Amino acid sequence: MIDELGQFALILALVLSLGQAGLSIAGRFRRDVTLAGAGEGAAMGAFVAIVIGFGALIHAFVTSDFSVMNVAANSHTAKPLIYKIAGAWGSHEGSMLLWCFMLTGYGAVMALARRLPFGLKASAVATQGLLGVLFIGYMVFASNPLTRVVDAPYQGNSLNPLLQDPALAGHPPFLYAGYVGFSVVFSLSVAALVEGRVDPAWARWIRPWTLAAWSLLTIGITMGSYWAYYELGWGGWWAWDPVENASFMPWLLGTALLHSAAVTEKRGALASWTVLLGIGAFTLSMMGAFLVRSGVLTSVHAFAIDPKRGVLLLGILGAAAGSALALYAWRAPTLKDEAAFTPVSREGALFLNNVLLAAATAVVLIGTLLPLIRSAIDGTPISVGAPYYNLTFTALIAPALIALPAGALLAWKRGDLRAALRRLWIAALAAVVTTLAIFGLVTPRSLLAACGIGLGAWVIVGALAEAAERVRLFRSPLPEVGRRIGGLPRGAWGMTLAHIGIGVFALGASFETAWRAEATEVLTLGQTMRLGAFELRLDKVAQSFGANFEAERAFIRVTSAGRLVCEAEPDRRLYAADGQTVSGVAICGNLLDDIYVVSGEPRPNVNGTQTHLIRAYWNPWVRFVFAGPLVMALGGLISLTDRRLRFAVTAKVRAALSPAAAE
Amino acid sequence: MTLVRGLQRAAIGLFAVVLLGAAAGDPADRLADPGQEAHARLLFRDVRCLVCQSQSIDESDAPLAHDLRQVVRQQVAQGRTDAQIRAFLVSRYGQFVLLTPKASLGNAVLWLGPLLVVVLGAAALVARRRAVAEPPGLSTQEEAALRDLSHEETL
Q: Residues 459 to 518 of A: which have CB under 8 A from any B CB?
């Protein structure tokens, strides 16, 4: 019964989205506030309906209702509750529902936004409604999560054990909140083209949405990367896997968008470029959804599904992105975009940032798509793997990081590069000292890695120097500095934090890539192996039991020069429900570094004693790799709380809750 | 039923993932000469495990990856050059086996595409510099609206 109610609610959401689009378009062209208001109401209704449908699916998972095909295929009664709930978005169908949940949710918040002018808002709500029609329609007709089966099985097929993990349970909601957050920017960009006007106020309106989407996407990608790091047992954190790339592309373009929107907001320049990025970020999100689900990619993470759905998703991508880009081609030349600036200025620096980020996006896009295109055209499959990306991507991002601290200190319109560099003497000093120290002290020597770490220091100290400059630290009396710190907008703090975050990431990525160590040995109980400066001793192997698996757990003592560093307990888990064996990685270590241990299959030795294959990595500074992006996301979220960027819904909500006061 | 087929495919894919114990450094397989072994490991990173999903044979524990590693190790031990080893792998498995696409006309877009973006960007900057014109000011109404929204400069 609840499933049918949910099914009904999903269909209702489709109808309401249609209504949202139709009413908003009619309201816009008749300049009728009531009609447009009805469209906004439909947007909120669509969200409520999706929430009901989503609730029904989660209910089906929690109660293990195997008469629902999706639950039977992805759940199991023995699964812990949290993974039953997470199972609701662990499959293709469920993740599409999560996508629609986000899409209508953002649409509902936009419908509540107060400050948008009538025409722009009605057009944007209509566009969001059309996106809703496409995606909810796809879900209802081609990928329905609540479809029943005739003969309900007694037991479910279980969720892939690799996906039964806290980081992965939370990864899709963040990722999708990020992906789909760009839909609002897309809608506002299309609306701006319809209205034929892109001005600083518009750029300010898209900013909170861009910030929210970007921050959440940053968190989602980081969680996914961390999951791949400790769950897949390969010791790495980024593989340039096509599905990772699919999430990375909207992030890169979204980062460019954040910066170009700042130029449009402050100076009115780059208006049509900002609109193009606004369309592009969500287009890449949709392309990611298509690539992951169509089965055209060979990837660790791809959902295996039939190609028919892939064609449908390609159609949706083509319809949404194609019409938006056609509209852009038609209307963009009419946009006013003539604010002048010299190359050496804040605008110039942000422009450079955008060119490099766009080129980096092109690297990832071409690298991901070319194998598909080549095999479609001439049937010669090629591989584009990590070596290509590492080279080209680094070549584009390093100059962006070099320019970053100076760019942030340049004035708008016409900057003074010398003065900016003079203020960065301390960052330059930090960079040089760090580079030399790392080059001189860490063996084996690597100039490239030392430069990468120096670059990280340059960015971090540069960001701090810029913040100090803002509050006139050491140049004004202390009370004045205090007053300035108090008066600094949250957006400025957010920017400083985000820049520190990318610097921290550069430190970790450079160090870990250059100096990670690996060792693999076959050990009997009591034997030791060397891993860099550490000794690992296999103390014992014992049986243990988890909620829905039984495991063989190894106890390994990690020492360095006789001193205990930590105890690692990797295991091998057998999930009886699906007969799979999964390696449970053990990670232990100190503040910055990880000792990463995986225990392989037991091997009988010649004389009959049991031996175990132990593989271990020392991943120095790897925690910076995950901490950096989280600091960036935190910066984005702090900027979002800037009072000038509020979604401006509170007052309206308050008014709606107390109708008497509103009248 | 497509769902069942899909699940089967998922299970096969997973099999490859679960096997990903990555025993590229398995002591039973290692070459006696540590220098040669390290060199072989470098080569592994550029060779695709053809049955796994976008992994190099250095990362995969699939049986085929193991076989390929042994082939590469043997050839390294025989003193064959990197180019010879790569050519051998390509002659057997096609260009797909190498993770670094070779420099060819069909692959040129990999490098020229991003370069084009940079060149276009530089061109746009130059063009903008020529067309120096002061922007028309905002109307008083717009100024007021903007003031209302912003009180201080950021970013």
A: 487, 489, 491-492, 495, 518
Our CA-based measurement puts residue A406 at a distance from the nearest CA of chain B, in whole angstroms, of 13
CA nearest neighbour of A213 among A174, A243, A271: A174
Mean pLDDT of A547-561: 89
| Alpha helix stretches (DSSP H) within A565-649 | 622-640
Rg of chain A over all Cα atoms, to the nearest angstrom: 27
Range(s) of the domain holding residue A632: 424-509+628-663
Contacts B110 to A, Cβ<8 Å: 366-367, 370, 384, 388, 392
- The residue with greater pLDDT, B137 or A451, is A451
Q: What's the CA gap between B77 and A206, in Å, rounded? A: 60
CA A266 to centroid of chain Cα atoms: 27
- Nearest CB to A363 within list B10, B55, B114: B114
- To the nearest whole Å, the CA of A656 is away from the closest chain B CA by 24
Alpha-carbon gap: B27 to the closest alpha carbon of chain A (Å): 6
A330 shares a domain with A181: yes
Q: Does A220 share its domain with A358?
A: yes
Written as six digits, the tokens of A657 are 């809750």
- Domain ranges for chain B, please list them: 2-97, 109-149
Q: Which of A388-392, A600-604, A615-619 has the lowest mean pLDDT?
A: A600-604
Q: CA angle, corner A261, sides to A256 and A267, nearest 5?
A: 130
Which residues in chain B have Cβ-Cβ distances shorter than 8 Å to A642? 154
Do A458 and A474 reside in the same domain of the chain? yes
**What secondary structure, in 3-state letters, does A245-261 show?**
HHHHHHHHHHHHHHHHH
pLDDT at residue A53 greater than cutoff 60? yes
Closest residue in A to B56 (Cα–Cα): A385
Whether residue A565 is found in the same domain as residue A639: no
Which CATH architecture describes the domain B2-97? Orthogonal Bundle (1.10)
User: What pTM does this model have?
Assistant: 0.89
Contacts of B17 in chain A (CB under 8 A): 162, 232, 300
How many domains would you assign to chain A? 4
Domain of A596, CATH number, reads 2.60.98
Confidence of residue B20 (pLDDT cuts 50, 70, 90): very low
